[in-house]
Every structure is written in structure tokens, then in C-alpha cells.
Design goal:
heterodimer, A: alpha+beta, Translation Initiation Factor IF3, 4-stranded antiparallel beta sheet, B: alpha+beta, 4-stranded mixed beta sheet, 31% helix, elongated
């Protein structure tokens, strides 16, 4: 479900009530909620942004069936799609919540996947972050009108802005991959030797590259010039031993026009460990 | 000689506490337990009424315990507080239709030399955070907390959940089930905001969240309904009276 401007599809009734109550109005600012730490909160304010509310989206998703060939390296497309679509559903709802608050974007976004024993073929996907709004207005949304999203902390957000860049969107790419089992003959050949296992190397290499290239494609779509804080996470989410998901995630950024010069770093000896 | 005090502060926090006029006096704790009966197969998905009604008195009771312990130590505030809301034993629910719901609040009691007389506050913020807040002309106003227990039936979706013979092979969202935890979180966050508003706050920072999802009813091993317990809490903050609209902080980029 891609984001469409002004839509609040998929949000439960309580979300609309909560967000309308928080929005304020008639020149009066509403109360904000935020999972930013106090330092992060003040840094966002210093950068010209006020927090407007904690926003989130969630989806419980049934993951379909996929046949796998025991002796073949292959992407499990059904699972890749499920893991991607469910995350996108959660992200879209979070963006819709931010839109209802009239926010410019969301910082500190966390994406969580949880599986429960009571639902073997399901997983819960949740996206949560703090919606913020610039005090003086300005265009911080993505080219297609979405609020910007970013998994940067308040500290990183401030530093990014000072460095002359602004976040565009949280971009992600994933790949669920089945790593082929070894044949008996190959296992005998390798017994007792130091040797690279090319099919394993190739499988994990492929999967990682696919996830990364999908993340990059998203950044290109959103007109970004780069991705900061990119990470590739691997998780098997309780699947069989030869199935693994690579999940690439990062904040796509673009340069701010007429940005002031980057401040010089200074040497600090911190007393906090 | 006075007894030594106990605090969870680390060295940096202790220095900040000293700077900002918070004198540590000791660890304090408050707890409330209520027996809550479970609701089997209510007709509609809604907040679990019995548990919801039990919570507010539990919160009042544990906060009163914390305050009583702190006052005894000569404190007028509790900082760095943590809230844990849980069931004592989840196995009890399935067999007896009844379980003990527990709320625990702990923190470090302090004497705040800057607080107004007769004032008492409990906040999750630590001393270093309070120092930063005060420098930026904010005051910790108190604990803002919201929770919800939401019951969601999803019997239509059982085939999708089980992965058994009737399972669908397709990727799709489990719409009914998504609603349960989502509603619980939204309702709880709304309540947290209400609590802060009542304390005259402008906002809440440092919100922490905790989710528990349990099957509430099963049929032949398949989950028919789930109960979501969601808790969120943070530090409600106020502006210092007479403060200007915005206080500038001077961040630096360290070479670490």
C-alpha cells in the first residue's frame, strides 16, 4: 500500500481521535508526545523543529507459502515480498499519522518485527517515531508529498542538517534467501580441509547485494543523492536453518540549497563514559 | 552517623544531581497487585473492561506507596523512575480465568532544593536530563502514563493464523488481528497525553513503551482472540514561568 496524500486508510478509530486531540488549533499549540530523549528534544528544537507527536503504524501479516529446492541457492520471493509489504504497510500508516498531525517529517524511526508462538505463520510489524514540524515552515516533504522519514537520532539529525543535508526518506530493501544444502560428494571432498565453500559464499553475497540494490533503488526513486547510516541486518526470524533475511535500511538524504558552512569539530573530553 | 543512601545514579549523574540541587536519599518502591478475571469470548472487540477498571486504583496505590516511602526519607521528589506492569504468571489465565495483575514503580528519592514548598513529583527523567531541561528553561512536571488492555476477536481469521490444512498460501495482512494491538497502543498514548495535559504540561519526552500480546481464547489449538496489554510512560515537561519562547543550546561536534 503506497502512501497517498491526505489518506488515513488503515488507521484505527482511536488513532484519528488521538491525533486530532493533539493537533491543537486556533493558534494554540497542542500537547506533544515524543520518545526523543531530552538531549534529542532540545537538539531538534535548536535545529528549528518542534516535536508534534509520537506516531506509529502496525500490521500483523500472514506470510504465504513458498516451495524451496533443497539443493538450490534461490531467493524466496514470496517471503521477501511479505516481509517488505508488511513493513511498508506499517510505515505508510505511520506516515499517515504524521500527516494528520500536520508534521513535516518523522525522526528516530524504529522498525520492529515480532513473531508470536500463537501465530505460527504470522509476524507483527511495527514502525514508531516522533513526528516533527519546522517552526518557520519550508519544504521538507518527499517529492511525492510524504512526510520525510529517518531513523536518525536527534543528535544525528542535528549534525546532518548542520552538514548541509536534509533527510528525504527511510529507505529499505530486503531479500529472503534459501542457501543450498551441500551434496554428500562435496561434503566428503571437503572433509578435513581448509577450503572456501563457494556456494555458501555466493548465496550470502547475492542476498546481501539484492537487499542493498533494492534500498538504493528506493533512494533514487525519492530523488536522494545519498544514504547515511546504512546498515545491513541479518535475521532468520525463526525460519528453517538455511533461510535468512538480509534487510538493508538507511536514511536517504539530499543537499540543502544555500546551506551555511559546516561547523568545525572541537575536541571534547566527556565525563560520561 | 546517618545511614548511607542508595541511588542508581552513575558518576556523571551524581555530579549533575549535585549541580542541579538534587540530594539523593534512597531507593523507593511501590507496588499494587489485583486479581483480574479474564473475559472469555465477549461478543465484540473492545477494551477489557474489568482490567481497565482495576488499573487506575492500582496506579494510585503504587504512586502513593512510592510517595510515602520517599516522604519518610525526607524527599520531595523521585527521579529516574521505572514502571513495570505485568501479569505474575501467564499460565494462570488459561486454567483459572483469573490472574494477578501487578504494577511496580521504583526510583531514587531525592530532595530537590529548587522545588516549591509542598510540591512532590515523580519523573522517569534522570538527574543529568533534569539538569539539561532546567538549563533550557523547562521543568519536569511529573509522570505521564497511559495503558490499555484491548481484547480483539479474530475467529474469521483463524485459518490464516494456524498455518494448518485450512491455511491460505497467499501473503496478506491479517486485518482483524492488526486492529487489536494498534487500538491498544493508540488508546494508551491518548491517555498518556491526557494525564500530561491534566498536569499542565506542554509535552512529554523520553517515552518508553512495552507491549504484551497473549492469546485469550483458543479453539482446537488455534488462536481465536488476543489480548494486548500496552503501557507507555514518559516525563511530562512544563515551561519555567516567565521563560522566553525558545532557549538556544550550543551543541558541539565532538571528535569521538
Amino acid at each position: 500500500m503506497p502512501y497517498s496524500a491526505g489518506s488515513s486508510e488503515g488507521l484505527p478509530e482511536a488513532a484519528r481521535q488521538r491525533l486530532v486531540a493533539m493537533r491543537g488549533g486556533e493558534g494554540k499549540k497542542g500537547l506533544f508526545t515524543s520518545d526523543l530523549s531530552i538531549n534529542e528534544f532540545l537538539l531538534c528544537q535548536e535545529a528549528g523543529f518542534d516535536p508534534v507527536g509520537l506516531v506509529m503504524g502496525s500490521s500483523i501479516y500472514h506470510i504465504g507459502f513458498q516451495f524451496k529446492n533443497f539443493y538450490q541457492n534461490q531467493e524466496l520471493e514470496v517471503l521477501s515480498q511479505a516481509m517488505y509489504e508488511a513493513r511498508e504497510l506499517a510505515m505508510t500508516r505511520m506516515e499517515e499519522e504524521a500527516d494528520l498531525l500536520g508534521a513535516d517529517g518523522i525522526v528516530g524511526v524504529r522498525l520492529e518485527v515480532t513473531r508470536y508462538v500463537w501465530g505460527a505463520s504470522m509476524a507483527e510489524f511495527m514502525a514508531i517515531g516522533t513526528a516533527i514540524k519546522h517552526r518557520a515552515g519550508g519544504n521538507y516533504r518527499t517529492p511525492d508529498g510524504r512526510p520525510f522519514t529517518s531513523d536518525l537520532s536527534g543528535q544525528d539529525f542535528w549534525t546532518l542538517l548542520k552538514a548541509g543535508y536534509q533527510p528525504v526518506s527511510l529507505v529499505m530493501g530486503n531479500c529472503v534467501y534459501h542457501v543450498a544444502h551441500q551434496g554428500t560428494l562435496q561434503a566428503i571432498k571437503q572433509a578435513g580441509r581448509n577450503i572456501e565453500m563457494p556456494n555458501y559464499t555466493q548465496a550470502l553475497y547475492d542476498a546481501r547485494e539484492l537487499a542493498l540494490s533494492r534500498m538504493q533503488a528506493e533512494a533514487e526513486r525519492d530523488g536522494a543523492t545519498g544514504i547515511v547510516g546504512a546498515q545491513v541486518k541479518e535475521n532468520s526470524h525463526g525460519w528453517d536453518s538455511h533461510v535468512i533475511e538480509y534487510f538493508a535500511v538507511g536514511t536517504a538524504v539530499r543537499p540543502i540549497e544555500n546551506a551555511p558552512a559546516v561547523p568545525e569539530p572541537s575536541m571534547v573530553l566527556s565525563l560520561n563514559g | 552517623m546517618p545511614k548511607p543512601w542508595i541511588a542508581t545514579f552513575n558518576g556523571g549523574e551524581l555530579v549533575c544531581a549535585n549541580q542541579v540541587g538534587l540530594k539523593p536519599l534512597g531507593q523507593v518502591f511501590g507496588c499494587a497487585v489485583r486479581g483480574v478475571s479474564t473475559q472469555y469470548f465477549p461478543a465484540t472487540s473492545d477494551e477489557a473492561r474489568i482490567e481497565s477498571e482495576a488499573f487506575d486504583p492500582m496506579l494510585a496505590e503504587s504512586l502513593a506507596h512510592v510517595q510515602a516511602e520517599a516522604t519518610q526519607l525526607g524527599a520531595n521528589a523521585v527521579v529516574g523512575c521505572q514502571v513495570v506492569w505485568t501479569r505474575v504468571d501467564e499460565r494462570v489465565e488459561a486454567s483459572d480465568g483469573f490472574y494477578p495483575s501487578t504494577l511496580k514503580i521504583s526510583g531514587t528519592a531525592v530532595f530537590d532544593t529548587e522545588a516549591r514548598k509542598g510540591e512532590f513529583y515523580i519523573v522517569p527523567a534522570s538527574p543529568d536530563e533534569i539538569m539539561v531541561l532546567r538549563r533550557a528553561d523547562y521543568i519536569p512536571a511529573g509522570l505521564a502514563l497511559g495503558r490499555s488492555t484491548y481484547y480483539q476477536t479474530a475467529w474469521r481469521q483463524v485459518p490464516k493464523m494456524t498455518g494448518g490444512a485450512f491455511s491460505t498460501w497467499a501473503n496478506e495482512e491479517v486485518v482483524e488481528l492488526t486492529r487489536g494491538p494498534y487500538m491498544a497502543r493508540e488508546v494508551a498514548m491518548g491517555r498518556m497525553a491526557d494525564m500530561a495535559k491534566a498536569a499542565g504540561a506542554v509535552g512529554i519526552v523520553g517515552v518508553k513503551i512495552a507491549t504484551e500480546i497473549h492469546p485469550a481464547g483458543t479453539l482446537q489449538g488455534s488462536t481465536m482472540s488476543v489480548t494486548t496489554r500496552f503501557l507507555c510512560y514518559g516525563t511530562a515537561i512544563r515551561r519555567k514561568p516567565g521563560s522566553i519562547d525558545f532557549v538556544s543550546v550550543k551543541p558541539i561536534i565532538p571528535l569521538s
